[in-house]
Amino acid sequence: MKTDISTKIAGVKLETCVFNASGPLDETLRDLRNLNNSASSAIMMKSCTIEPRQGNPAPRYANLEYGSINSMGLPNQGYKAYLEFSETLRKETKKPIIASICGMNVEENITMFKAFNDTPVDLIEFNPGSPNTIGKPIVGYDTKAMDKLLKAVSKVSKKPFGVKLPPYFDLGHYQQIADIIKKYPVKFVTCINSIGNGLAINPKTERTLIKPKGGLGGIGGHYAKFHALANVRKFYELFEDKIQVIGAGGVYTGTDAFEFILAGASAVQIGTAFIQQGPQVFEKVQNELRDLMQSKGYAKLSDFRGKLKTLD
Ligand code: SIN
Question: Who lines ligand 1 at CB under 6 A?
């Protein structure tokens, strides 16, 4: 039996359902070329802002026993660089190229969405949810701000776009945010950004592990998986599969990817495991997913996607 793990996001074909999350190792053209040379099925670029940013002071990332903490603060080369990178990459690859936009206000987001209209990027992931911008709240937790932003970018975007969401924990919040997203032509949501404002401590030195924000940072990796799965599941149900869901948070193995797809995800992204294990992780997860599907008699993702069983 041939096992097919291809998928489509907003009509764009991906040879496999496993690719990189925006954030780690996707800031420079060199990083993006490395992703092209890896088995990542798409090239997701670093979230960009209007001006280049150095990001937060180091140390701003640390590995933890079961994941990571980061407060990178959106270091990136400014959106104009990513417009150019997309043109360059398009000549070098057939892989889908995804821009990630993270403006600091409505106007900045409009400017960047308009600019990407004229590039070869296939998809845009709108990232209003970074927990790491000093002095800026997590927009995904402010329903009015989300509504305003989505309204504004929907008017100008000619590219299919999705939204990267922070994790939600309260069932009422899922409904509120889904109701807003459904008003606009959002094609997918990515669940989840890192779990905001965790605190990791070194008990020997009695210091925080990272410097920004008094040591607070987004928690990723294995720690994030269970909330990521819950967010995928709830949005899959609330959107009734009319808006796609991409899973992100704690994907290290084919079994992790399988669980996300079972919960309703159309694809998965890899962040912390990419930092910790390098680009080989994409192929490893893809092979393990194929093997697991084969052992279960599944030939393609739609054989089990969303078909999670509960105990009632
Ligand atoms: C960062 O650069 O701070 C991470 C990006 C994000 O959390 O969205």
Answer: 23, 47, 72-74, 127, 130-132, 193-194, 218
The C-alpha atoms of residue 125 and residue 83 are separated, in whole angstroms, by: 14
> What domains, with CATH codes, occur in the chain?
7-55+73-194+221-303 (3.20.20.70)
pLDDT tens string 64-116 = 999 999 999 999 999 999 999 999 999 999 999 999 999 999 999 999 999 99
Measure the CA–CA gap between 121 and 84, rounded to whole angstroms.
Answer: 11
Whose alpha carbon is nearest atom 7 of ligand 1? Answer: 130
Token pair 């907003």 is at which residue? Answer: 10
Separation of CA 79 and ligand 1 centre (Å): 15
Instruction: Report, in angstroms and rounded to the nearest whole number, the Rg of the chain calculated over CA atoms.
Output: 18
* pLDDT, tens digit (0-9, with 9 covering 90-100), for 198-227: 999 999 999 999 999 999 999 999 999 999
Residue 228, C-beta contacts closer than 8 angstroms, at least 6 positions apart: 167, 191, 192, 247, 248, 249, 250, 260
Rounded Cα gap, residues 22 and 26, in angstroms: 7
CA of 169 from ligand 1 middle (Å) equals 20
Output the CA 49–ligand 1 centroid distance in Å.
Answer: 11
As a whole number of Å, the end-to-end CA separation of the chain is 33
Nearest to 98 by CA among 34, 48, 155: 48
What pLDDT does 1 receive?
76
